[in-house]
Design goal:
Length: about 140
């Protein structure tokens, strides 16, 4: 199977006074990677999905390995470690241009449906079609 891969340039908006990525910006970069994966690879763009459903992060494990600096290009990788009825455990890794791991970890996403009033959510199983698309990224 395969990984979903995107590149991102470290911009001024990402860094702190020392010129390295401020750690919460990495979480935003990870969320962008998940959003791009859903839109580009799974054909489930957030703009459409969030009309009735969501895919919140319910667990996140992250290890920071090396600093990322202003101007660097990071290669962001995402893959599926485990697919369950309504959740996905994904592995991720960000690598710099020197092939050094900047950060790595796991994120658990849950497929949820909003109730009609949009004041509550409930886990909802993935469709078979969606499961088949997600399985293409299992390693």
């Amino acid at each position: 199977m395969s990984e979903f891969i995107k590149q991102e340039k470290v911009r001024f908006q990402h860094v702190d006074y020392a010129g390295i990525v401020f750690y919460p910006r990495f979480l935003e970069m990870l969320n962008c990677l998940v959003e791009d994966w859903f839109e580009e690879a799974l054909n489930r763009p957030f703009s459409k999905m969030h009309e009735t459903n969501g895919i919140p992060t319910v667990d996140l494990k992250i290890q920071f390995k090396n600093a990322a600096r202003l101007g660097e290009i990071l290669t962001k990788k995402l893959w599926v470690k485990e697919l369950k009825n309504s959740s996905i455990l994904c592995g991720f890794q960000f690598v710099n241009e020197s092939e050094n791991t900047v950060l790595e970890g796991e994120v658990t996403l849950v497929n949820v449906a909003f109730n009609p009033e949009r004041n509550g959510i409930k886990a909802e199983p993935f469709t078979e079609e969606m499961k088949n698309k997600i399985k293409q990224y299992e390693l």
